Amino acid sequence: MARFHLTLLCFLSLVTMSTVGSSQTLFTYDTFSTPLINPALWRGSESAVSSTGTPVNTEIRRRIASSQLELVLTTNSNAVPAGATGLTTGFTGTGTNRVRIKQAGLVDGLPEITVLQARVTVKAADVDDCASNTTGSRTRAQVSGHFFNDGTAGSGTTDLTGSIIAGLNLERHSKEGDKIVAFINRCDDSVCSFSVNLKTMTFTRTWTLNTPETLTVRWDMDQARFQFTATGATTEVQTLTYGDIPLRDAGLPKRFTKDLAVLNTPANCSAVQQEASMSALFDNVRTDQPLQ
Q1: Could you please report the per-residue DSSP string of 44-101?
Q2: Running DSSP on this structure, what letter comes out for residue 264?
Q3: Largest CA distance in the chain
Q4: Whole-angstrom Cα distance, residue 144 to residue 282?
Q5: What are the distances in angstroms from CA 163 to CA 37, 129, 264?
Q6: What is the DSSP pairing of strand 275-287 with strand 163-173?
Q7: How many CA atoms lie within 13 Å of 259's alpha carbon, on the beta-carbon side?
Q8: Topology, domain 29-287
Q9: What is the pTM of this model?
Q10: What is the spatial distance between Cα 46 and Cα 67, in angstroms, rounded to a whole number?
Q11: What is the pLDDT of residues 93-141, one digit of tens each?
């Protein structure tokens, strides 16, 4: 049974709106028309989280260019001079360059954002491949968020255990090529240093460089599912259910997290340092809740 949600209706002038489906209105959050990233709307950060090695972010850029948010990141598989991890299985870790919604009227989690949308254009994507490792390197441009908690979080105000993440990636994979991937993940620890994949769906079509894709992640609470839409030259919609896992919506996440990001996950390679890089533009960010 989904929780009862009380939404305060706010009527704002000069707000650009679009619709998802036949009944859901989206409000413009940011069009990146200012010279600098607006600190009242976004908080930027980067990370390099280890899995079996020590990934290193070597190049990073976050800026507004021609009324678009530009996120650029290059990540290498290991910090040792020789560049070798000593492993030929799995991946080293993940490097991330992100901006997170921080608008004061939304970050307490109420009213809940159930739809997150952005137009994404991949400008460049490169991944090294280790032939002796069956795990491929990945890079991706991502629109994602924490939407609810499954009830396993502790009493602490920031415990992310059981936080459920849903998102949509424009991904380049060193062994599988370019693809659009929807996912539902679950945080397994209090700081969500890593999340465990619960479900994944690969779209039937792919993306191309320098071609905008409007990515929409929609949480359908009543039906216990997420709907993912990618609109470029054509539109494709995919759905992932979670009631069958089973997984329940027990409450709000302990931390408000709605992100635009580029992420690199270089594979391990015993003799050669692996590199992954992504350059992507984001604009026309919309949600189903207006600015407060």
Answers
A1: EEEEEEESSS--EEEEEEEEE-SSSEEEEEEEES--STT---S--SSB-EEEEEEEEE
A2: E
A3: 60
A4: 13
A5: 28, 32, 22
A6: unpaired
A7: 24
A8: Jelly Rolls (2.60.120)
A9: 0.90
A10: 22
A11: 999 999 999 987 777 778 889 999 999 999 999 999 999 999 999 999 9
